Amino acid sequence: MGEAELIKHTNQLLINAVIIIYGDAASDELATCIAADIAHYWNEAQGKVMIRKQQFNVRFNITGACDRSLTPLTVYENTDPRNNYFRIEEYAAGNISFVDGLNSNTGYLKLDNLLHDSTTAAHEFGHTLGLDHPHTLDIRGKGRPGIMYPRGTIVDHIYQYDANALPGSNGGTINPAFRKVLQKDIDELRLHKLDFNDAGRAMVGSFTSIWHDRHQQ
Q1: How confident is the model at residue 115 (pLDDT cuts 50, 70, 90)?
Q2: Count of H helices and E strands in the chain?
Q3: Same domain, residue pair 11 and 52
Q4: Which of 9, 18, 145, 189 has a CA-to-CA distance to 38 between 20 and 30 Å?
Q5: pLDDT in tens, 9-38
Q6: Alpha-helical regions (H) of 58-196
Q7: Is 209 part of a structural domain of the chain?
Q8: Are 197 and 166 found together in one domain?
């Protein structure tokens, strides 16, 4: 989730978001890293959008914070569209990270999923902005996979965990480190459809406001 901001004199459309993390594995350093990863992958696309016959450069302004004193009430009562709340733990039920649906501002992230250039944070952020997984999950011959392709997608061998593995076998599916935000991903955000107010601001996504307790093994 975030807040879009039109800056007409510089032809920029900013997507402002704050990633607030909590939980046993959360730290100030990790918050900074998550925010930097999201900004890096989404800005790497150098996205563009046409709004009211004017072309804007889409830029993502992402900051991170670790709130060790965060309470469920703070999450429930938040009204700032920039704020996203994610619990970070070493263990997650199902061994996966997730957000609370498309267009959301809350979720639960597994620490190991965030490491090793996994692009997980950027992928989950895409869900918070309303993007789903693509329907076709065998994209051999289509080149580098976009950011929203999930683990298990069948890709060209150079984008697999093991380039020598048979497609679909152990090691023969997408290595998330190869995912990349493409202009197509920017297009699917449908930013030109946002309802901007007189100040040139609009909400991207919506409030789920769910507090997550730590999963028990």
Answers
A1: confident
A2: 4, 8
A3: yes
A4: 9
A5: 999 999 999 999 999 999 999 999 999 999
A6: 72-77, 120-128, 183-188
A7: no
A8: no
DSSP, collapsed to helix, strand or coil, labels residue 124 as helix
E strand or H helix that includes residue 47: none
- Distance, in Å, from the CA atom of 157 to the CA atom of 154, rounded to the nearest integer, reads 9
- The stretch 93-119 carries a mean pLDDT of 91
- Tracing tokens 């918070």 back to the chain, one arrives at 128
What 3-state class would DSSP assign to 187? helix
Which residue segment(s) compose the domain that 26 sits in? 2-131+189-204
Tokens standing for 58? 């889409």
- pTM of structure: 0.94
Count of domains forming the chain = 2
Same domain, yes or no: 110 and 141: no
Distance (Å, whole) CA 113 – CA 93: 13
Q: Which pLDDT value is given to residue 217?
A: 87
d(CA 114, CA 16): 21
CA 203 to chain centre: 16
Asked if 3 and 17 touch (Cβ cutoff 8 Å), the reply is yes
